[in-house]
Design goal:
The structure is a homodimer of 121-residue chains. Chain A is built from 3 helices and 6 strands; from the N terminus they run ααββαββββ. With 121 residues, chain A is α+β, with helices and mostly antiparallel strands.
């Protein structure tokens, strides 16, 4: 798949809330995922599909998603970008809030090998 | 200005090739600019408006721009993203090529305080 095709597929999966399916179909085993920040003592970076899936599973288990809006993708060479706006409740605190973030992805040989998220904390 | 207004203004300036005017109007004195890579011994990061302007001046002096296409912006919270596709000639080597990059910007108090560029090298 081209970068554009991977980008279109990711946006479609995520718009439908199918984050796990997106990883399974589109992510490289060697994916590196970078958050804007991390709790003290933890890393911003997750390496490898197992670690990135585990991060996604923690997130899914701890948040109720009321709505997801994905805009983009914009594609440039082997990179693409999209924005995510999610209305969610963090279940352990019953706290409802809107997440807004810019995401950047790198594609090599039809698989996403790097993702980075930009948001204010 | 809101993040959306800053984003719209930046895209308009850059689409018209007015990169220096964009910096003057929209960049914080404390801007940090991050490239995808740097030559050996040099930093990916430029700090402060003078350093970032100097990087822009070097670029403008060494490239002839045949066309510029900017797509976006997509805005999420205090961040926005856009893509740049430029057909340029690197003048010292008379080498014509297409630059394609994803750019991410952070806005605080109506000024761009951070920019990062993603491209393959």
């Amino acid at each position: 798949m081209t970068t554009q095709e991977v980008a279109n597929a990711l946006v479609k999966y995520c718009s439908e809330g199918k984050f796990e399916e997106a990883m399974k179909a589109l992510y490289s085993p060697d994916i590196v995922s970078m958050e804007a920040g991390a709790p003290p003592g933890q890393s911003r970076e997750s390496k490898g599909l197992a670690a990135v899936k585990a991060k996604g599973e923690w997130w899914a288990a701890n948040h109720e998603v009321h709505s997801t809006k994905v805009e983009g993708p914009l594609v440039a060479g082997s990179y693409f970008t999209a924005t995510f706006k999610m209305d969610v409740t963090f279940k352990p605190q019953s706290r409802r809030f809107t997440m807004e973030e810019v995401a950047v992805y790198k594609v090599i040989d039809g698989k996403i090998v790097y993702e980075e998220f930009f948001y204010s904390m």
